Predict the structure.
Amino acid sequence: MKPLPPEFLSLAETYREHGYGLYMIGGTSRDHLLGRICSDFDFVTDATPQQEQEFLPEANYRFACFGSVKVASLGTSCDVTTLRKEWGYEDHRHPSHIEFITSLEEDSYRRDFTINALYIDPEGNIFDFHGGLADLEAKVIRFIGDPRKRIKEDPLRILRAERFASRLGFHIEEESAKAIEELREELSLLNPEKVLMEKKKA
């Protein structure tokens, strides 16, 4: 595995000095493990935004109520999200309730695909709760849990699955592919601008 990004290591040291952990997650971990260049930096921490303000006062706390903070590391903007549970997707897009937690495994259940739920710590240890490493190896896009439930929570995941499959040269796992075709009409529930923005990312 190639060396971890210096932007991550530098920021992780700051968190460690204050008693908190920092982990790479999502596309950052996925692309790192695939040997691809990381264009976006997504990290998670067990520190809450209130705790982060004590040692990162210069960060952007606009979305702190959702546990999301923007922090500069070595001149690069990084998204740091507090580990959390979420439920109640009443608008078919965003959770109505969130709860900050400290468990990586609990946090992993809110994520969309197995390959996006790989947590990497500053020592390079990988925490894989859903077989994401095996799916990376097999080039598979697979929803975490019941694919129909995950799509109904957020239909935009249909387009995300197809975008990742196309961009990475992966294939969508059978049950996930069935759910996507059965529930494609759910996309009509979303703001058309959100759908268009996701399609432009492809």
